[in-house]
Specification:
The protein is of the alpha/beta class and about 160 residues long. It has 6 helices and 5 strands. The chain has helices spanning about 50-60, 75-85, 85-95, 100-110, 130-140, 150-160; strands at about 10-15, 20-30, 35-45, 70-75, 115-120. The protein has a 5-stranded mixed sheet with strand order 3-2-1-4-5. The longest helix is centred in the first third of the chain and has 14 residues, at about 50-60. The chain is globular and about 45 Å long.
Length: about 160
């Protein structure tokens, strides 16, 4: 956990999947005055969007001080627009019916509501140092030797594919 006082925190995030679906990972860089922390993990079967969203979730969950002012920089329109354009409120009001990744969106909302979070979309692979670092962390994590299981995603895949009845 990152030890922070109620102050401004900057988070950069990125997700990656090789094959989409395929092995994937996320990377996050958390910064506050005098502090920096990097987070990453890899999964054996997942999607890029799940990793983009999970990067934000894990980064916010690492904050110890509630009600922090947090700015999240992401190259994911999926994540940034869902929050900043209000789509997420509509999805939640409809219990995420016909939306992908409801497990992660519900987890996101739980931690998101504990802070004052805003999102800024940045173009990926545009030489932004922290975004490039997050991409590196995410890709390296996707090649890890002991990849985690994205159990919700894998269960959905098992029920959606290969079944005759």
């Amino acid at each position: 956990m990152l030890y922070l006082c109620a102050m401004e925190i900057t988070i950069h995030t990125d997700g990656a999947a090789r094959g989409n679906p395929g092995p994937g990972g996320y990377g996050a860089v958390l910064q506050a005055p005098g502090q920096r922390k990097e987070l990453s993990a890899g999964y054996r079967l997942t999607t890029n969007n799940r990793m983009e969203l999970l990067a934000v979730i894990v980064a916010l969950e690492a904050l110890k001080i509630k009600k922090s002012k947090v700015t999240v920089y992401t190259d994911s329109r999926y994540v940034a627009d869902a929050v900043e354009k209000g789509w997420l409120k509509t999805w939640e009001s409809k219990n995420f019916k016909n939306k992908k990744n409801p497990d992660l969106w519900i987890r996101f909302l739980e931690i998101y509501r504990q802070h004052n979070v805003s999102f800024i979309w940045i173009k990926g692979h545009a030489n932004h140092p922290e975004n490039e670092r997050c991409d590196q962390l995410a890709v390296e994590a996707s090649f890890g030797k002991e990849l985690l299981t994205d159990s919700v995603y894998e269960e959905l895949q098992a029920t959606d594919k290969g079944n005759l009845f």
